[in-house]
Amino acid sequence: MNILNLFKNKTFSHGIHLPDKKEHTREQSIRRLHFAPELIVPLSQHFGAPAKAVVSPGQEVVRGQVIAEADGFMSVPIHAPASGVVKEIELYPTAKGPKTEAIIIKTWPGASQRAASFEPVNIASLSHEQLIQAVQDTGMVGLGGAGFPTHVKLSVPPEYSIDTLVVNGCECEPYLTTDHRLMLEKTAELLQGTSMLMNALGAKQAIIGIEDNKMDAFNAIKSHISGFEHIQVKAVQTHYPQGSEKLLIKVLLGREVPSGGFPYQVGVVVQNIATITQLGELLPSNQGLIERVVTVTGTGVNKPGNYLVPLGTPIRFLLDHVGFSGNANHLILGGPMMGSTVASLDVPITKPVSGLLVFNEQSVEKVTDEIYPCIKCARCVDACPMHLNPSILGQLASKRQYEPMMETFNLMDCFECGCCSYVCPSNIPLVQYFRIAKSVLREQPREEA
Amino acid sequence: MTQTVKTNQASSMSMLITLGGVAMLSGLLVVLTWQLTLEPIRENQRIMIEKAIFQVIPGAVQRQSYALSDEGLELIDPKVKKLKKSEMKLYAAYDKQGQLKGIAAESAAQGYADMVRLLYGYDPQCECIRGFSIIKMAETPGLGDKILVDKTFLANFDALDVRLSADKKTLQNPIITVKHGDKKNPWEIDAISGATITSKAVGKAINLGAEKLLPRLSAHLEKLKLMQTMPSTQVPKSTKEKAE
Amino acid sequence: MIELRTSPHMKGALSLPQIMRHVIYALLPICVFSIYQFGISALVLMTVVTLSCVLTEALFNYLSNKKNSLNDYTAIITGILLALTLPPGFPLWMGAVAGFVAISMGKTLFGGMGFNLFNPALLGRAFVQAAFPVAITSWTPGGMADRFTQFIPSSLTIPFTAPTNTVDSFSGATPLALQKFEATTTPNSDLILGFSSGSLGETSSLLILLCGAYLIIRGFMGWRIPLSIIVSTILISGIFYLMDNTYPSPLFMLTSGGLMLGALFMATDPVSAPVTPMGMWLFGFLIAAMTIVIRLFGGLPEGIMYAILFANASVPLIEAIAQPRKFGQVATKKSGENK
Amino acid sequence: MEITTESINQLLLASFFMAALGIVLAGVLSIANRRLYVYEDPKIDEVEELLPHANCGACGTPGCRPFAEALVAQTVDPGLCTVNSKDMNQVIADFLGVEVSQHEKKVARLACAGGNHVAYTRANYQGLKTCRAAALVSGGGKGCTWACLGLEDCGTACDFDAISFNKFNLPVVDEDLCTACNDCVVECPKDLFSLQPISNKLWVACSNKDNMDESEAHCDVACNACTRCVSDAPEGLITIQNDLAVVDYSKNGLASKVAIERCPTGAIVWKDYNSESQRGVGSRKIVRKEPIARVEPLPRV
Amino acid sequence: MPIKEDHTITADTFLAGIWKENPVFVMLLGMCPVLAVTNSVINALAMGLATTFVLLCSSTLVSLLRNVIPKEVRIATYIVIIATFVTITDYVIQAISLELYNALGAFIQLIVANCMILGRAEAYASKNRLLKTLTNSLGMGIGFTIALLSLGTVRELLGNGSLLGYSIFGEAFQPWVVMILPPGGFIVLGAWLLLFNWIKERNAALTLANERGTS
Amino acid sequence: MSPDSVSFIFLNAFLINNFVLAMFLGLCPFLGVSGKLNTAWSMGLATSFVMLISSLSAFFINELLVYFQIEFLRLICYIAVIASAVQLVEMTMKKFSPTLFRALGIFLPLITTNCAILGLALFQTFKEYDFAQSLAYSTGAGAGFILAIVLMAGLREKLELADLPNTSKGAAISLMLAGILSLIFMGFAGLGS
Ligand SMILES: Cc1cc2nc3c(=O)[nH]c(=O)nc-3n(C[C@H](O)[C@H](O)[C@H](O)COP(=O)(O)O)c2cc1C
Ligand SMILES: Cc1cc2nc3c(=O)[nH]c(=O)nc-3n(C[C@H](O)[C@H](O)[C@H](O)COP(=O)(O)O)c2cc1C
Ligand SMILES: Cc1cc2nc3c(=O)[nH]c(=O)nc-3n(C[C@H](O)[C@H](O)[C@H](O)COP(=O)(O)O)c2cc1C
Ligand SMILES: Cc1cc2nc3c(=O)[nH]c(=O)nc-3n(C[C@H](O)[C@H](O)[C@H](O)CO)c2cc1C
Ligand code: SF4
Ligand code: SF4
Ligand code: SF4
Ligand code: SF4
Ligand code: FES
After folding, report:
1. Which of A245, A347, E59, F3 might form a disulfide with E137, Cβ 3.0–4.6 angstroms?
2. What is the per-residue pLDDT across B27-75, written as a single tens digit (0 to 9) for each?
3. Closest to D57 measured CA to CA, from D183, D181, D197
4. Mutate to test the interface with F, among B5, B22, B30, B137 (most CBs of F within 10 A)
5. Residue D255 CB contacts under 8 Å (≥ 6 apart), including other chains
6. In this complex, do D123 and A371 lie within 8 Å of one another by their Cβ atoms?
7. Are residues C156 and C192 in the same domain?
8. Is the residue at D54 inside a domain?
9. Looking at ligand 4, which residue's alpha carbon is closest to its atom 12?
10. What is the pLDDT of residues C156-200, one digit of tens each?
């Protein structure tokens, strides 16, 4: 809406501009975290059916070994993040709330960590089906946040053809810098992974979209790109939620993913930087996903930075390591806009977690300010990137009128980006309302059946 | 109204009889009432009209109704005769001696809220309007209805000039309403400030009426000079009229 | 203990009281100009009306055991704006009545701040306009020599009685009334700078525009509604003017009467305006069209108040036809092509 | 007034006119009637009058009118309406000439006893005061993930004011008022309510599926799967599933208070109609009489 | 109804219309005349009496004929009966005072369409015996008249400074013109309803507080 | 604009002297059926349709009565004829256009005893409108009724999302809303004069 936007890089309409707060970790190169004495590996770290454990208590496992296998197509295997012995398989708290089954591994002390050996594979020689299988075997899921199994994304329904792979390097959430660091430090793997996936999808081109607050990453990739003809990098304006795949596709390609539909319907697949980088590393060596980069930052930690964390590391251990100042009482897994708070320090780091934000008392913005009635100021309407009407949705939700929210006002198109809550001067917890409404609405068909 | 009916539907005959009977009964009742109240109602109407007429024509105590049309002037009994579209009704008012004091007629114009319907009194002697009275209006009380009480406004009608032009086809000067304090000519109406619209409506109505009435009337003025009486009885029975 | 909160965990800087505070700041220059022009009567009338609004709000809070709602400043805005729409010599007691009606019937009745369907200030004014039509159409000219030492006589009317010694209201006829009833045009420079008679706050279009621009630039107020009203006014009255230039010019239309104040401060009252962009354009157009129709063909010289209120009443209908086009709504065709 | 031939004529004219009009209209109506003839049993209206118009659905039909239709068709029996008083149902039955069968009353029962004096909270939930919202934010902050959050969703859902909250923020069902409409069962995001016939007196007031230590770490009255009730009760009445005692109500006839006596936490209780549930003598005493302090969530907007 | 007809006349038969089932304040029936003619007390009174008269006469006739009228032509017959009495009233008022007649305008004739009267005929008179019907109708009529008066009083007092035409507040009083204009009708009735609601609310709150206090 | 012109008559009945908000006619359905926008719209359509029908039938009935010189039976005849005309329409509609019937038909019986219908017929007779004028009058009144009831319904629907104080729930708020609308419609006064 701002006239100045004309002179900037491209972006989508609506959305908001956020302070990026990335300065504390932007310059911190990725450091490896050592193993926690006990790793908690939930069987469900992804979207879809939980994996099935194939180990039993007392069994010794080697780092990288499959400890749970995929339960069907909509599922991925899980690999042991560290060598050790399986202590138990029991219910354990997760970030979402309900307890789920987790394999608890007592790790051997750091020095004796030994990796299972793998035979490298020749990607080029694999058939399409084999390639998908290989991707599934890595246990790779979207590392951008949703945890959607990557191999499912690659198996595009036959009636659609993919022409473009979009690599999502926006990292539009404040504080987070994992993708930024990966682009700088693992540029080669990124490009390799990109061309691998292009082949897998049969895509003619790939576009790496990067927000223009990460121009160093942009330049780094630009300087490596010469060997890869069909890959281009494009800078897009820093604008939240630029990283959402639908908006990124709109900006880069001008295509609009139909409401309720998926990117493949407009010939695009979107993958996150981390997903592709990891895939670029793991696939040729036939390894499984056992660790990921997590940004740990916030006012509550002493050593903010980007850490390569073995999956299953309890937050408590991570915090001890980075030094956390006493009264930190607000922990967020993910970014500040979409991440969720955790109720317990026992919660482990899982595959989709890209950041851990730790704040001490009230240093997070004053969310608990007094709530006023909606004044219909339309700021939320102007902010909503999905062009919904959060104002009326919020009013309906407060009166528990959920049906019209879905039927008339397209509630289901809301992807909970939080723009509306962010701008609301009346402090109405719009997104929370919408989550409640969606959860009620999702339950309803089940009841009627 | 009758979607849910019992299984035992009433026969059509009984329906016909009941409704027909009740309707007949009510027709009877109404007609009786009407006949009984006819007289007092007429009397009421007469009093009301005369009050209005005598108010707009100072000095008048009797009156007579006429219908003016292209065919000429015709004495009517207003209670009985329905006027045709082409006819205009007017009242000639006389003093005790039966001398013509003035002529009153109705006119109307759109005011602020709704039509302002008024009766104005024309004095053939001075060729001027002597007054008006409101038959019906819905102007804002306290604002629009100042036209009834505002002294300066009423003073406009001491002698509002409606002289006919030389050819007797139109008014020499159309009546216009000017803003408060701007009245310069005897054919202008000085508006009430704050109720300009209503004032204008009064002016418009009188202008409209005078434009229509006076040119046609001028030929018949002589006929009205002296009070006439109806050829038949003073108050004829309606039914007789109908028989004609 | 760990705190559980829901995302987003960040919050934009604007808060409701802050917005409202800035609206008050933006209104202050207009008030000052009004006091300069009309003297102590203006000052006292503004104070009385605002106090009446605030006290009414407090009274109803007390009666309904609601928590204090004065700290959102909206009652003060209502009071100031209401006062700015009243004629300078308006009896103070009637001003107090207007304030009471604005808050009680315009706001509390519907559940208070945020729920009112109509602009409370204008509702208050509409009520007193219907109740005391004479007093509200008695204009006093601005810039009278003794304005800082003496009250306009009608101001001090004893409660519940009619103003007795009204100044000859003619000397103070508003530009619109002059145009409508006398066919006299006021010079544009007077209209723009504010040296004409009229309601307390409506005289200087330029000042109003500047104050409104401040709010828009700082992001406290949307820009669509004012723009829509101004553009529509120019277009519609331009068409009339071109057809027949005895009709007032667009510039006159824009700068006379309460149009500017209405467009920038009253039609923009967020609560009683639509939320969707398309709705805002329609809303503005409706206001402009109706204002012009009333001004040119209606019984009243000014129509902006009724136009805004009517548009307020139409908001549900406007919103029923002007919901935003959601993202991805038309793209279904594209995917078909892709198959 | 004189009576003249004119006035008589007028009288006759008017009367005949009206009579004719009446007959024409009646004719029209009678034709209309034939065409629009729709049979609907008038009994349905009358029965509906006698129903409570609560449209709660507890009877199993979508509302009172369909229930009335079904009653008149005699496909259901009046006793199914749980909102009406017994007498009124008898009136309906008499009217229809049928018997009222005795349906056992069901009430809503909560499978949790973790008020905030016995169940620990590990995190402060700050957000809208609804259970569903809290459940969506990392489960809501109670140590036991299955526990009642006490933010009153069920109370709001109940149309009959049958659910109130005690000072430990635990819902208490007034069994007289409960009509077994199922609303609270549907509403609770933790699925803690279920409808139980009042003869099901042996009741496990816990849903915790953690094992022994873990469950007791979060709640003083949790079922810790110690199996004492299983061995004290007749064979097969109680089993442990997922570290939780489960009563098999098909063997309800065997139930007696013996089963609850040795329960160390008092998770299994004996619930008589309309009285407080009784804990076993062996259960540990609840010492805390005040709720553990918590930060109030935002008001339910 | 399976429940037997009840012929006993209680105080409630009469009082229902005045308060508990007041046609205007509670049942919101016959709103048009209520609002249209209450700009002065005298109009309100005349309208109230006229309506009561029609109500009584038509209920009587309907009650007497209740077993004769076939269900199918019920409404048509009622309407004709009502219209008859309305016409009669109309002429009688004209005979009494034309001024009053003009003030009431067409609303005398519109009594025909007053839902209250048809409602009473349909719901009460057609089901009950004459005496009971009369008692009830009288109550209704009085209730209606009271409502009209309560509106007329406020509107005339504020809108004209007078009651029954006599100036109350003296010359200097500034009439609140809006009260006799259409909006005033709606607003005054709305205000009465608000007042009743408020009293009800407060009483409910008080009894609740009392119960809490005693238990 | 001449007060007798068809366009002024339309405008007058539509806005200036809106049947509901200035003339107090048809309040029962206006207050009763304005809860939901959709129903209000249907009700408005049905009412204006019936207005048209009854205005026409009243026009012809009046000719008949004048011919027989029994105008005193006007009221009875109007109401009886309108009632049956409406029922006939209802019947025809049901038979020939069930969709239309489902949308509008259910309101028809309700409308018969609505004083706007009768008022329209009576006023057009008092004002001695000819056929074209009656037509303009009835369409104007119908349009005015639709406008009023649709505005009202929109507002009431919006109010459902408001935190109404208990005191103003129910009929009170509807009446106040009607009052406010009526206040707003005063702005149309004097239009076209
Ligand atoms: C139920 C469901 C089915 C999906 N099916 C597909 C699919 O068939 N193909 C695909 O490319 N992506 C599929 N997706 C993935 C989404 O397009 C999207 O990439 C994923 O939800 C993560 O995106 P986000 O992080 O923007 O939420 C599916 C997602 C969901 C929730
Ligand atoms: C509001 C919103 C913001 C998002 N922001 C980002 C982002 O900054 N970076 C990113 O990689 N994915 C982001 N995503 C997820 C993408 O939509 C998409 O799911 C992801 O890029 C798919 O890649 P993945 O399957 O490899 O994770 C966002 C999603 C939403 C709904
Ligand atoms: C509620 C209200 C009622 C009004 N009623 C009338 C009225 O009955 N007659 C009238 O001429 N003007 C009426 N007006 C119009 C204004 O007073 C208008 O400004 C005035 O007629 C023209 O101003 P002027 O006469 O001072 O030039 C009314 C205005 C309002 C707001
Ligand atoms: C830009 C803006 C304009 C406003 N205009 C008005 C106004 O015209 N009248 C008013 O009563 N309140 C106004 N308010 C204050 C507030 O929105 C109003 O009191 C609410 O309607 C009360 O619910 C305004 C507020 C803002 C932010
Ligand atoms: S959270 Fe949903 S409604 Fe709010 S801005 Fe984002 S997409 Fe729009
Ligand atoms: S931003 Fe908040 S106050 Fe403004 S319209 Fe949206 S929900 Fe309402
Ligand atoms: S039982 Fe369920 S709905 Fe009720 S308070 Fe507990 S968690 Fe909430
Ligand atoms: S909501 Fe629950 S407690 Fe209330 S009546 Fe229904 S079943 Fe009983
Ligand atoms: S009284 Fe006018 S519609 Fe009911």
Report:
1. E59
2. 888 888 888 888 888 888 888 888 889 888 888 888 888 888 877 788 8
3. D181
4. B30
5. D201, D202, D233, D237, D247
6. no
7. no
8. yes
9. C78
10. 888 888 887 555 544 567 888 877 777 778 888 888 888 888 899
